[in-house]
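A note from the maintainers: we've had questions about how concatenated examples are separated. There is no special marker in the raw files; a new sequence line simply starts the next protein. For clarity in this README we add a label.
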Amino acid sequence: MRKVITFLMLVILTACTAKPSTPARVPTSSPFPRTSIPPTAAPTAAPTAIPDPGEYIVIAQLNLWYFGPGCYGGFEAGDCSGKRTTPFEPALGHTYFSSDPDVIRQQIDWAADNGVDAFSLEWTTPRGVGCCGSMEDNIDDAFLKAPNLDRIRWVIFYDLVLRILQTPGLNVDLSRGMDFDDPDVYNTFIADFDHFAKKYFGESHYLSIDDRPVIYIWGTWNAIGRFPEAFQEARQKAAAQGYDVYIVGDILRGDVFNEELASVYDANTNFTFLIPGISTWPQDVGQAAEIQGDVFKKWQAEIQGLKVAGRQEDVILQPGWAPQYDDRLFKAWQGQEGIYVPAMSKDQVVAMAEVARKYSEPVGSQGWKLIWINTWNNWAEATTIEPTIDQGPKYPAGNYQFDMLEIVRDIFGAETFGNSAPEYTSP
């Protein structure tokens, strides 16, 4: 199952990239050539009005678990051999730090300049909890302190699997699925929604639909047990803090449809085109676009008229997509065979994006259509849209430069919540 493979990659990579017991620190010197934005700049003034973001709200998964060179940095093999785990060379440099203000500032500007409205930030444990540090450190200390944060919105990408695995004292058997009959799963899930509501849902840049904060959940496509009760209680925990949460779940499958699971979410989605249960893995992104379109069509028919559990709204489809997939370098040092689904041309990626656009559905009073891109910068799986350097052929699966961002802008529109870059002044 592709989800299991993807999950194992994330477990190892997240564990390796956070240095034990100490959070990431901003490096004394930038690991990449200085951008045109001054390194310690601050905006002269916040925007006075929120622009119309357009019909499509594009959300790309921004991973904050990069810590520069070395086997704990996220760009090199975990066996400390120094071998690269990605076929690409990021435009930000051979390696970079997610805690570096220059990195965050440039990522936000690139996104806002090219029609990416929001980032989904992977969350694994609360601050101070976990064997290998917490993603909250970089969320709080780097991303939320970016001087150009007004240009972007963000949501929590709730990685329930890593939350369970990285939390000391939890002893959960995941071999049968995410079992909500297990008190550790049930109670952790509910407690986390209380935590999100208290700490993050009220943040002024957090993405909401009609004042309903959006949260993406990864790791419940195989949920069993008392998950309906857990979701209802989690919603109640958020409601007690004043938030009517909007929950998006990565649960699409190509083989079976679980109506009860689909209905606990406000919207159903998929992480990439490697959807569990499809009959064959695609050979390239052109074929992947066709297969994904078939799954979307079938799933959309299945959920038609299905109500969100305990609510009057219909469950809707919110497509997710990726430009390509190549984890062969990452898997090689583990002695495993990787997966290679390359984009053979820019047109193939355009076709993938067009499939997502075709099956997107409006939500809320503004009729927004949420599109999930996975990912902005998971370099080890080559699902990235963050720019690369100009080196070698772009296709198949080469350094594509700004191609992926150009596709986002052209297919979904350039409008965002903050199209105009704020003016900066030197200190």
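[label: protein 2]
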Amino acid sequence: MPSDMEQAPAQGRKMFGWYREFDGKGKKTFWACFLGYGLDAFDLQIYSFVMPVLVGLWSMSNTQAGLIATSALAISALGGWLAGMLADKIGRVRLLQITVAWFAFFTFLSGFANNFEQLLIIRGLQGLGFGGEWAAGAVLIGEIAKAQHRGKAVGMVQSAWSWGWGLAALMATLAFQILPPEIAWRVMFFIGILPAGLIFFVRRMVPESDVYLQTQAAPGERRSVFSIFSKDLLYTTFFGSLLAVGAHGGYYAITTWLPTFLRTERQLSNIGSGGYLAVVIVGSFVGYMTSAYLSDYLGRRRTIMLFALGAMIMVVGYTQADISNGVMLFLGFPLGFLSSGIFSGFGPFYTELFPTSVRGTGQGFCYNFGRGCAAGVPALVGFISAQASLGKAIYIVAGCAYVIVIAAALCLPETRGRELRSN
């Protein structure tokens, strides 16, 4: 019998067998999508770490602080839909380059803002690229992955979000310890220009997907970008959008306000809250990976509903239970695991729900319509927190959002293992 040491490498090869089945171009595409989404997360999450500082420096209310977060998320809905349509017109790879350049530039520009109004506008414009990157990358990786491995491949790209979030947390901890707050927050935004370097890699190394090229070569199979609202796709578009509304609503209620919750209601310092956030972020990465594999094993719908139910229970316990800071540190892992892991199934689910000719449009609209509707969540939490505690506001909004997820998932068909169709 093989020893434990011999079995471990074999199990690892089996676990990542889906990756080894990619050819050289496929692996480059995977890493381009992975890095693009991770850097997208880095640029967006920067604001959640500078928000407590700006509230003090600019004397903003929680409602105003939430509105800035909302502006990026709301406009990302438009950006995601436009990017999805363009991805079906000019290609997934070209669109990936454009969106990365866009969100990197406006994140950098945010560092020059001098008041609430300026940052509100700049972050709103940043949202166009933020929403578009997911639409381009998720479609691209979904089209090159085999049906039996699509959940794992797309889910692993989704896990890049936790790496970007973790990098933002690390940089924020360092910046605010080394530099004065009035300088550190600007430096955080300036660092956001770094993702632009990814463009050169994508341009030289990443090919367009064969599925897309085949559809473009067959004009008779093309459909209008507005056909996602036609009779045969409207049902899918509606409930696909509702699914994203709930998942994003729950996620933004938790993550946008979590640093502020830890510092104001739990009285933790930057260093102290950084440790708690680290546990949440590690949990989110494990959640993404676990959900990626479960979506191929249990199916897209079951996995999404399972994570939604778990997240709904966990957020109540995390924000409302009378627990010590030590227990809260421990609970951060399942909180991140469930609230983030739910998204791993979205990419493969949408890829399989829509035909190739409008796949970018369908995915871009549903995912980012949900993100746009959920954009009001940070501001809503801020508004409710003026009448109740911040923790209570978080769990009320997040709990309602996850109920929507479960209801929408029940209305959509299971698509696990479905071969992609062109029309």
